[in-house]
Amino acid sequence: MTQEKKRILCSVGMRGNCDHVLEQAADLALVTGADLHILHVAKSFPEDMFNTLKTNIRDRDTLSALLEQRLEERRLELAQKVETACTRYPSLQKAVQEQRVTQSVREGYPGSVIAHFATDGGFSMIVMAANKQGSTASYAGKITKGVIKRATVPVVVVPAAP
Question: Do residues 10 and 155 make contact, with C-beta atoms less than 8 angstroms apart?
């Protein structure tokens, strides 16, 4: 019986500090010998906003280019976040140097996209932030709860950095 290559999916947002989540995911990848994929999901435009864009930008090529530019900006922002985190966390830097880290950006409802991406990509687990912090403990935010509800693999929820 052959053992399947382990793959860890680390989902990060762009609003907060995701360094702690990246560090934990990199540590897990190094300890388990898994590859690490870092994913950011950009929320889709609300339907009314998208309809307004379609109405006001009649040239479909221009509209497509605008939407692709938005995702490309997110890809660059994600690459910058990972690069910055590498300067702080040796485990992440080591994983990147060993070319065991990949990145991508998708669009859609984050909870659903993350869970489906993990299933379709054959990932062993998902690592993501709690994203909420109460007075006594960290707890899962809306997106994290959505992933937990839909995921077919274990979800590791990293509490907010101390």
Answer: no
Alpha-carbon span 140 to 159, nearest angstrom: 8
Asked whether the whole model's pTM tops 0.90, one would answer no
Q: What token pair was written down for 55? A: 């109405």
Provide the token pair at 149: 């509800």
What's the pLDDT at 130? 84
Looking at per-residue confidence, does 14 or 23 come out higher? Answer: 23
Amino acid identity at 112: S
As a whole number of angstroms, the distance between CA 90 and CA 142 comes to 31
Residues in the chain: 162
- Let me know: does 118 contact 152? Beta carbons within 8 Å: yes
Q: State the angle between helix axes of 60-88 and 47-56 in degrees (0 to 180), rounded to the nearest 10.
A: 130
Tell me the CB-side half-sphere exposure of residue 136, using CA atoms within 13 A. 0
Residue pair 144/116 in contact (Cβ under 8 Å)? The answer is no
pLDDT higher at 161 or 146: 146
Closest CA to 75 of 45, 101, 105, 96: 105
Return the exposure string of 98-124: e unless at least 16 CB atoms fall within 10 Å of the residue's CB, then b. Answer: eebbebebebeebbebbbebbeeeebb
